[in-house]
Every structure is written in structure tokens, then in C-alpha cells.
Amino acid sequence: MTTFAELGLSPKILAAVDAAGYTTPTPIQAGAIPHALERKDVLGIAQTGTGKTASFVLPMLHLLEKGRARARMPRTLILEPTRELAAQVEENFVKYGVNHRINVALLIGGVSFDEQERKLERGADVLIATPGRLLDHFERGKLLLTGVEILVIDEADRMLDMGFIPDIERICKLIPFTRQTLFFSATMPAEITKLTEQFLHSPARVEVAKASTTAKTVTQRLVKSAKKPWDKRAVLRDLINAEGDELKNAIVFCNRKMDVSELFRSLVKHGFDAGALHGDMDQRARMTMLSNFKDGNLRILVASDVAARGLDIPDVSHVFNYDIPIHAEDYVHRIGRTGRAGRSGKAFSIITPSDTKHLDAIEKMIGEKIEWLDGDLSTLPAQEETEDTSRRGGRNSRGKNGKKPRDGKDHKEKQTQPRNAEEKTADAPVVTDISAIDAPQPVLPDNVSLGTVVAQEPVRPVPHKNGNDERRQNHTQNGQQNNNKRHRRDFDDEPSPLGFGDDVPAFMLIPINI
């Protein structure tokens, strides 16, 4: 059996590894470290949880023992897809580089630019960064990449999923052609293969496990559930309670950030010790939540796929896929959070009738059928589907605004009813002789002809016992005043009055005692 001493590492590194409690390298470490020490390009393919991080951290420490860093010119560069992975790699350098005097700079989002720039000014032997923040510093003129000797691209398939490949291509063109490149990935889709052909030169290929396979130490089971969210949450709670004391801690994966928050609140409401982790959280909150879970202060962590890749939490006993992942490769990474370093673990996936397509893709990729815990989807109660279908039918039978369409008979009857008082009198006889209408006629003074209006005292309404008659009379008087205004505007042949004329407001006629 190979030991770390046989890999050619320096005594300082061997002492740090021994202090960390490791004696035997993993297959990926035993295969990649010797090639990296010879300054060859390495293409490492291994499933998650097999020690890929140490397979490039240890040889980099060995090669960095000679030389020193210059301001704004890092000697090595490590690209990571997420902030959590970048911070984890920094922790590995601190742990294994305890006997070295090297400067490590971390460039990730959510941290002040000024603090990161001060680290670059002091000179960085190791620069760990996410692609976006790295390019931000470069465009500000605070970073030079012409001194990079070793480039590490970690979790390359995750970089592809997150859309970082164009940024990586740009960064690779800014780094000297003579660099050494260490390329690590858990899966090798066609796009990643083209990238390795473009930027790696005669790499040593180290593949210790079949691409896209799951660890044999993880027990996988499928659990049926109806599609309704409250049913899925109930199934998850039953699974957690059924595991009892065997469940030390668990990560529950959701596909959407909104579902992470919703499920987290539900678990807390039902008395579970839970926390949440997703990409929209503040960086300090994310690191605090992850630290509490690692330290055992949280038993259940509800997370998005931000926690699915590369996070080194050694003793996770359970993984629950509350949502089945859309991409089959993500299933491998999710359940890889448990069963690490030779430990055993359990992974449960909640499956609804609409998840069969994604489940088939996962089983095809891993090359095996996953067992059902308590019967497959065919054993779901028949009323679940019937009730759901009837509810959907009920919604579809409604109108555009969610209202039921009016019955034709009722609608026809409503149309036959008169809409207002005018329709009620529509059948009344029509009066053609205006003199037959019994209505009061306006009386004009002798010196006033039609079209001429004189100022008159306003007619005060006489109170009536019937309020409707009073309101009708007020309405008639208002109509007469409006007619007077129209006459004054259209037929005013008299000279314009001075000031208010005869229409002086009453409040201006009140005498004032001086």
C-alpha cells in the first residue's frame, strides 16, 4: 500500500499531513501527486469525496517552497465555481501549509475590494478566486497574471453548469503559455473534453473511478409522494423521524431557492433543528450557517445546489433529495456529501409522478436501478390522482378571471329583466303634445324676452314632508341654474358688469366694525 512518504513530498508537508491524521493517500492522490511534482499537466477524474483537493494542494506546497511572490503578481492560481469551495481550499492550505510561510489571497464576492487589494499588494503565493471576482480585479488594474506558474481548474463540470467557461477561456489567455495546468472534474461531458484539449498539453490522465458513478458506501432509496407540497413535506418529516438516532446530521436539497426558504420555515415550525443555505444569502450569513452545520450546532441543513459540490463536511450521515435534480450529474454530487472517506451514508430521494423523466436519466447515467423504500409510484392511492385531476378540471372549467361561467338560462332571464327605470316605462304611451304635460312653466318678467337673463333672488326650497320630493325639487332648480348659465354664455347682449355686478357674495355685505 502506497504511503505519502513514497509520493516524493517534502518533510514539512509530510509532518503536516501526519498531524492532520492522514496516513494513506486516496487513489486520486496517489495517481495525481507524482505527475504534478514532475510539473506535468494533469487531468484528474474522480467522484466527489475522494480527496481531489489535497491532490493539488500538497504538490503545490512542495513546488512553492522555492521562490517568493511579488506584489500584484500571484505565483499560482486556483479557480473555483463557488465561494464556499474557494474558502474550503483556503482552509486546506492553512492546514497543510502550517510549516510553510506562504501568502494566500482569497478573491470571492461578498467581501470588500479594498481588503482583497491589500492582500494582493503584499504579494500572493497562492491566489484562490471565483472567475467573476478575479476578472473584476484584473479590469481594475490591481492584478497581473503574467507570473502564474501553476493553474488549477477545480470542479470543471460545475463551471460549465454555471456558465463560467467563457471566463475561464479568457483567463487562460492572460496566463503564460508555459504554465502547468491541473484540471479536475467529477464528470467529463463533451464540452469539458474540448476544453481540456484546448488548454492542456499532453496531460497525464488519472481516472480512479468511472465517470458519473456513485460511491458504494452510500445506501440509496426512492420514496414515493404525491406532487402537492404539503404531502412532500410530510413525507420528509416521516423519513427524518423514522431514521431516529441514526441521523446525526443531514443535508436536504431543493432545486429552487424559494423552496429552500419555504421548507426551512416548515421544518422549524414542526420543531426540527434546521438551517438554510442558498446563493441569495449574504456571504457572512452563508459562511456562518455552514460553520454551524460543520460544528454540529445544526442537525439539518436545507440547501440548494450551492452545497452540492466539493464541500468537505466529513461526517454527514444522511442526504435527502426533497426535489429530484433536473441534471443527472447533480445527483452524483448531492449524494456524495455523505459516505465520505470510507464512512457509510444514506441518501433518500422523494419522487412524484412528474419526476419519472429525471429519475430515468439518473438511473441511465449511474448504470443501476435505485431501490424503492416502500413501493413505487404505482402504489400511490388512486384518490390522490383523481382528486388532483378533478381540482385541475374545476379550475379549467372556470372563466378567464377564475369565475365560473354564467348559466345560459339564468343569463337569458337576466337579459329579459329591465336594467333601469327607463326600460320599465318603455311600453308607456308616447306623449306628442307638449301642452299635455302637467308641469310648472317658467314665468318671466314683462321686460325680459327669451334668451335674456336677469339676476333673481335664489328660490329657497320649501320643506316637504316627503324627502324624495325635496330632493326632486333641488334637482329641478339645479337644472334651471345650469340652463341660465348656458343662456348667459350664449346670448349675453348686455354690457359686461363691473366687479361682481349684482352677484355680490353675501359674506362681503356683512358690515365690519372698525
Bin the helical content: 25-40%
CATH topology of the largest domain: Rossmann fold
| CATH A-level architecture of the largest domain | 3-Layer(aba) Sandwich
| Silhouette | globular
Percent of residues in β-strands: 5-15%
User: Quick one: CATH class of the largest domain?
Assistant: Alpha Beta
Number of strands: 14
Number of domains: 2
- Give me the CATH superfamily of the largest domain: P-loop containing nucleotide triphosphate hydrolases
Give the number of helices: 18
Strand order of the largest sheet: 3-4-2-5-6-1-7
Summarize the biggest pleated sheet. 7 strands, parallel
Give the N-terminus to C-terminus distance in angstroms.
119 Å
Low-confidence stretches: 384-405, 407-442, 447-459, 461-465, 484-494
Domain DEAD-box RNA helicase Q: 2-30
Region (Disordered): 377-429, 452-504
Keywords: ATP-binding, Helicase, Hydrolase, Nucleotide-binding
EC number: 3.6.4.-
Q: What features would you describe in this structure?
A:
With 514 residues, the protein is an alpha/beta fold. The chain folds into two domains: 4-207, P-loop containing nucleotide triphosphate hydrolases (Rossmann fold, 3-Layer(aba) Sandwich); 218-381, Rossmann fold. It has helices at 11-19, 27-37, 52-63, 83-96, 113-122, 131-139, 156-161, 165-174, 190-199, 229-243, 257-269, 283-294, 328-335, 356-366, 382-396, 408-416, 421-424, 467-490, and strands spanning 42-45, 76-79, 104-107, 126-129, 150-153, 180-185, 204-207, 218-224, 250-253, 274-277, 300-303, 318-321, 345-351, 371-372. Helix 2 (27-37) packs parallel to helix 3 and helix 3 crosses helix 4 (83-96). The relative contact order is 0.09. Mean pLDDT is 79; it is low at 384-405, 407-442, 447-459, 461-465 and 484-494.
